[in-house]
Amino acid sequence: MTTATLPSQVQPSTLGKKILPGVTIGTLIVIIIMVASFGLHMININSIGNANEYYTAAVESMLKSWSNFFFIAAEPGGSVTVDKPPLGLWIEAIFAYFLGVSGFSVSLPNILAGVFGIGLLYSMVKKYMGELAGITAALVMAITPVFVATNRNNTMDGILVFTLLVAAWAFIKATESGKLRWVLLGAFIVGLGFNIKMLQAFLPLPAFYALYFFGSKEGWLKKIINLGIATVLLVAVSLSWAVVVDLVPAENRPFIGSSDDNTVMGLIFGHNGVSRLESNGGGGAPPSGTQPGQPSNAETQPQQNPGQGQQGQFQGPPPAALNACEGQTEGASCSFTTQNGNTINGSCIIPPNQTALACAPQDRIPQNGQVPNGQMPAGGPNGQNGGTPFSQETGSPGVLRFFTSPLSKQMSWLLPFALISVLLALFGSRIQLPIESGVHKALILWGGWLLTCVVFFSMVSGIFHAYYAIMLAPALGAMVGIGFAQLYSWGKNKNWTVIGLILTVLVTLGFQVFAASQYNEFSWWMIGTGILLGLGILLMAVSRRAAYAILLSAALIIPAYWSVMTVTSSSNNNLPTAYEGQAQTGQDGFLGSPAPGGNGGETANTELVDFLQANTQDVEYLVAVPSSQQGAELVLATGRPVLYMGGFGGQDEVVTADDLTTMVANGELRYVLYGGDRGNKQDITNWLSSSCAVVNDFSSVSSVQGQGGPRNQNMILYSCR
Questions:
Q1: Which of 160, 340, 420, 554 has its CA 20 to 30 A from that of 281?
Q2: pLDDT tens-digit profile of 279-308?
Q3: Could you tell me which residues come within 8 angstroms of residue 370 by beta carbon, excluding any fewer than 6 positions away?
Q4: pTM for this predicted structure
Q5: CA distances from 178 to 219, 222, 227, 303, 344 (A)
Q6: Residues whose CB is less than 8 angstroms from the CB of residue 670 and which lie 6 or more positions away in sequence, other chains included
Q7: Mean pLDDT calculated for residue range 583-602
């Protein structure tokens, strides 16, 4: 067996010195980084509230029965499934079984996955590029804001990233050993990743295959055959749960949430497939509008001062917000000054009931198909007026997507350094096939992973949420570590590399200052990064090792600060995101201010819950609601079945009016909480009007208390007997 060897000069000798059997100084440093990362993740952990309530309610449901557990039912009655595969939620449910259902218990698996992923990344980067590169990679990933934000949530992306890191380890073993079993193990693990977040797990697969194909010393034909066998296994593992579920008759299982045809295959290639690649109107956001038989809010609510509405609802943008977007395109960055002198930085959107673009702060515009304060921009169900879904969260497709607001705050702080490192690694050794140099193997794996994700996410025009950027965190850290270690190694013999490091850090710092200014976050202390840059340059003549360390530190300060602010800012954590900056902290933007604490400070409507609990002890369902947007909080408050008639976002055909009639006749359902002019549910609207009576005490009610998304719109409680 052949293994990649590494010239000793790539790493400072002290880092490889053993202080205990099998423990080097470098290993100890990484352990300290891991402990510090865990501490960072735990700061202000109560602010996450219920985390993503859709998934937390699903975990509550999954613990009610084995059927709910297997099918990942979104609510305890098993009416509809979550719009994701099962493995990540199974893991979260196991943690919740022992710790109780809470935002913390269901997020803990992601936190632990992130912390242990730091050590795993270190070991793999170290293999090809030495201790210095491994330590740097671990540190960079640990202080990447979206890495911290996403791990402190139950969206399962943290578990997915760890799973893919384990798969990368298996493909490294396959490359170095030439054994088929390691290729199969890698494919099997990627298949497990597919059962966490479906096709998202395949993003680094080209890099994994390329590492084995170009790096292994086996014959080319044998490698092709081995990869073919591995691909068959990959497909089999990936689709195993989907095939089993789809073979179960529809009447014996929940409706497959967010699918067009009530199949997991339809979900894979539809909502979680094509809809991620191009804008097609998917996304599952509930429509907004009026309750059946009730006038619209515009007819019943008095007008407020410009920029303010009853219960924080949007009434109209101030002139300055309109002027800021004059001549701009939807999703473009913008800023304006309010009457009290505050500067608002945000993005141009088409506000509700408006036709002109207006500048809105980032946290007051559509997120995950939900618009703060119960309003929804005109246009498609994703609130993008037929354009790129969630562009206010991730910007518009293009080569600059990761370098401009609103996406630049997530993980791009060190992206210039990483991209320059890709070029450095390319010329790090003579190219030969099969690849023998450690730097080129590292480039194929980590550079391939990074570039694949950068290109993919920069170009897609479909459903793309900001927290998906965690997929780039391992490769980002690895490439920064590789580039820094390479410059350190070259610097001993090539003086030009000193200038190269200085320029790389200078370009990175310039971008960081530019990015921070996009969020109105530039502070006087950031000048300290420039001071460190100057100090590092001066120290070159005295101690090159100290100079390199200080130069790297200069580039790490701002992303580290952003990560700390991410966990201390108590932002809404229903969808994880990096710190929004001073411009996004609720300064009298015309769409209102967010409530403090996790999930917008919302709690279940206690008066409604008490009424339903008291009057439904003899029926199965607590209540039927349009979607999970109104029902998740009720599930978490009561643990009772809540019928999601339209699945996650109100668009699914989970039940029909005939189904509801039967359920009422069978004593399974008594109350329906309904609202909105839902064109695709006209049969239910008509049925409520003809067969049910309004409960007078709840003729205008929201399912939750506090400010929220579409689930917080005024609704009507119907009694159906």
A1: 160
A2: 654 444 333 333 333 333 333 333 333 333
A3: 285, 629, 708, 709, 710, 711
A4: 0.84
A5: 10, 10, 12, 72, 57
A6: 615, 616, 619, 621, 664, 719, 720, 721
A7: 42
